[in-house]
Amino acid sequence: MAEHKEEPVAESMMDKISDKFHGGDSSSSSSDSDDDKKGPAAGVKAKIYRLFGREKPVHAVLGGGKPADLVLWRNKKVSGGVLAGATAIWLLFEVMEYHLLTLVGHCLILSLATLFLYSNVCIFIHKSPPNIPEVKIPEDMTVNIALSLRHEINRGFFTLREIGHGRDLKKFLIVCWLSLQFGND
């Protein structure tokens, strides 16, 4: 009985493969009702979507929209720009061993110098200088953050004191194990 089930499956797979090679129709009838209305491109397009057993196009499998367009290189300028940007970031951080904090600092200095020069050039060309908003940090928010941070630091010191006095063996062993694991880096 198991042989009987495998035989039609194998035959149907062979039929599908031969349909792929021979253009789809296994019948030799010359019916032109559906094929002429849709044209030859519709048959080819339907065959492309069924390649490798897929029922959906790759664009739909990738979720559609702009991310799928980017991956499939539908807009070559955008995809090339993303590839160039990722390559530049890789070159900066891996090949040249540049650090993120250094990069952020240099970008901030460069933007500050650009803003300074633009403000001074605006005076010479008789334009109004750029409107830079005044930034103020509220005192109550700063005090609340400091109090919360102070509470967490004091709780950490209390835990370290408890471990140091030998009152919590489990935490002591965990700290020793973690220091051995991450201290060797």
From TrEMBL:
Ranges in coiled-coil conformation: none
InterPro entries, sorted: Reticulon, Reticulon-like
GO BP, sorted A to Z: response to bacterium
The keyword Transmembrane helix appears for this protein: yes
Residue intervals of the Reticulon domain: 67-173
Tagged with keyword Phosphoprotein: no
Transmembrane segments: 78-93, 99-118
Biased composition (Basic and acidic residues): 1-23
Protein's recorded name: Reticulon-like protein
Cellular component GO terms held in the UniProt record: endoplasmic reticulum membrane
Bilayer topology: Multi-pass membrane protein
Keywords annotated in UniProt: Endoplasmic reticulum, Membrane, Transmembrane, Transmembrane helix
Sequence segments annotated as region (Disordered): 1-41
Compartment annotation: Endoplasmic reticulum membrane
